[in-house]
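Side project, low priority. Logging it here so it doesn't get lost.
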Amino acid sequence: MNTKYIVDIAIKNSKISGILKVIENNNTVKSSHFNPALVLCDLISANKILKIENDSFNLEYYKYEKSFGIDLYVANEPQYWNIREKIYSIINSDQKSSIDLGQIQRICEIEFSHSVTTKENAILDYKELNGFNNDKIGKDEIDEIADKYKKMELLAKELPDEYFIKNNEKTDFNFLEQNSVFVEIENENTIIPKSTDELVSTYERINKKVNKAIEEQINIDNDYIYSYTCYSVAGILYSVLHYLITNKYRFLKCSHCENYFATKKRNANYCERNSKLKGYNDKSCQLAKKRSLNALSERYNDIRDRLEDTINEEGFKKFKKEYKKYRDIIFEKPTIKNIEKLTNFLKKENIKEFRLKYKVDTVSDYI
C-alpha cells in the first residue's frame, strides 16, 4: 500500500486554511497546517536551491519538499518535478488563458479524488445518522410541530373570527394553552392565534437553535471543506492547484515582499505573509509597510525641524528633495528594498554628514 495523503482546505468567512495528513504504510499519521494561498508560491520561489547539470536536476540538492511543514521525499518522484514546473509556469504567466486541470492531471499522472462538504450538508448527515428524517429539525420535533400546526390551521378555518373562546366546542383550550408558542393568551377566556408569519418565524428560530446545537455537537466551524485524497507529493500540489483554479483564484505579486500569492480579489496588493523588514517581522506585509512609513515620516519631521537652523539653505533644500525622492519611490513601489533605502537615508550617520557638509557658516569659521 502506498503512502496516502489527505489535503483538507477549509473556508470560513472567505478565509482559507489547509491541513495535510500523511498516512504511512504502518498507519502512522503525521499532520501539519499550511496556507493554501501561499504554499505553491513559496514552493516555486525555492528555485534557488535547485541545481541543473546537463539539463537535469541534481537531486542531491533537493531531496525533500518542505513547504507544507512536513519533509516530503521527492527525489524519486518525476511527477513532482513535472507538476512543479507546470505550477511555476502558471504563477509566472499573465493568467489570461484558461488552465486545463484535466490535461495537467494526465501529463503528471496524478491519482486523486475529492469531495466538498458544506456546513449544511454536515448537519444533514448528522441528522440522518442519528435518526432524523427532515432537513430542518429532528423527527420528534417535526412531528410535534406539524401536528400542532395542522390543528391550528383547522381551528382557523372552522372559526370565522380571529378569537378562540374558552369552552367553545370547536376549540381545544387545553391544547392552545399548553402551546403558547402558537398563540397569545390575553386572559383565561380569549386566545388570539399568531399570524402565519409569526409561526414561520418561530419555526425558523427553533430550527436555527437545533442546527446550532448540532454544529456544537459535531464541532464543525467552517462554511466549506474541500477534501482531497492522493498518493504522491505531486498529488498534494495538484490538489491545492485544483482548489485554487476551480475557485477562480489568481496569482499576484505582493507589493511589499515581492513574492507571489493566490487571491480572489482583483486588486489585492499585499499577501498574508509576515514582512521581512527589520523591526517589523511580526507584522503582515501591509501593516509593516504602513507602520514603517509612519515611523519614517515622524523621524523625517523631527530631523527636518532640527536641521533647519543648523545647515544652510542649499543643504536644507537638498535634504527635503532627497527625502521626497525616496518617499515617492515607496509610494509607487513599497518594497522592502525601497523602504530600507529611505531608512538608511534618515540614519544618524547620514544626517551627521549633512550637517558637516552644509553647516551654517559663522564668524568663527573665518577667524
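Brief comment: The longest helix spans residues 196-218.
Revisit when time allows.
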